[in-house]
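=== RUN LOG ===
request id: a7f3
mode: sequence -> structure
chains: 1
length: 424
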Amino acid sequence: MDGRSGAAAEDSTGAAVVLRVLRVSLHVGFAVLLLVALVRLLAAGVHGAGWLQLVLALCLAAVYLAGTVLEKRHSARPGRFDPRRFSVSWLGVVCLLWLLLVWGSADFVWLAFPLFFLQLHLLPRGPALAAIGASTLLVITALWFHNGGPAGSAPQLPMVLGPAFGAAFAVVTGLAYRALYLEAENQRRAADELRRTRAELARSQHEAGTLAERTRLAREIHDTLAQGFSSIVLMGRSAERALDAGDTELARTRLRTVQDTAAANLAEARNFVRGLQPPELEQSPLVNSLRRLCETTEREAAARGTVLRCRLEVDGTPAELPAPYRTTLLRAAQASLANVWTHANAGTAVVTLSFLGTEVAMDVFDDGAGFDLAAVRVRADGSGYGLKSLRERVAALAGTLEVESAPGDGTVVAIRLPLGKEEL
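=== RESULT ===
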């Protein structure tokens, strides 16, 4: 019932393989020695006390086999009955049966050698050495007794040296076995810890990836679909008022704007599914996309009955920017201009795109009503998320975002994105 080594022996490490071989050799050696003693007992003829010897030998075989089978089943499936807490009691029963067999026949004394290994492994080191010493004395005494000891001289030297050397060999081998067992157990625990760490790391990476994707989608939806739907709602209300006033031509213009905005939103929605860059950037460079955005902003403001002049200014020589830079700048311009024509009541908006060699900068200025920066917060209905989303986009590219505004003084949104050598 070598229960403590069960789990470790199932590992595929070199130490575990050696342990498995030693355990199998121990059990096979015990069985062979017991079988040899039984054969000699049967060959001598079973009569009188011989029947008791036979019964005790069969009981010893049954008890030993039951312990090894239970230990093997538990090592294969740890959820089954755990025999380890009964290992010392099991060893005591095995030793008691062996002691009774030795009392009756010297053929059973050689079972002491596999028992030495069991005692050393299942008992603490001090009690194990004491048990091995006592068993060795018992073997010497039994050999002397069954060879006419009480009536003859003292035990002969071979009777002493044989068991003594056997016990010493068992102690040395048993200590090596225990060292291998501890190594295998430590390796098993390290492997379990590594598996747990990997599982926790995979789980945390999955959670971080999920959170990052949610944040990305929140930014994309706010800066594209949400702005578009807001425009559609406003244009729809304007068209409704035009119809109520009987101005069908104005209503038609408003509805055309609604159609254009809905078509753009549909393209954005399909873009989310494909995981591509903004559709307008697929068709033209960033400068053209920003210029077209300014024109769209003027049309949407006009559709609401307000006059807003929006223009694009480009400083420096336009350079080809990586997709994340183009997307961030376009989304920033979209969000900023949407706020201008929705909230600022401005007459002029200027988007300035500057290529400065080591960085690209974009400023969005309007001469509108301005706002109190300290009062900006994300509200329960999702509004107010734009500035937070924009800061996250810029921070992801190691850039800076500054917003200057005050009630009545207009607003400036300034973005700076550094360009590495690979982006130049």
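=== NOTES ===
Confidence is low (pLDDT under 50) at residues 2-12.
The chain has twelve helices and five strands.
=== END ===
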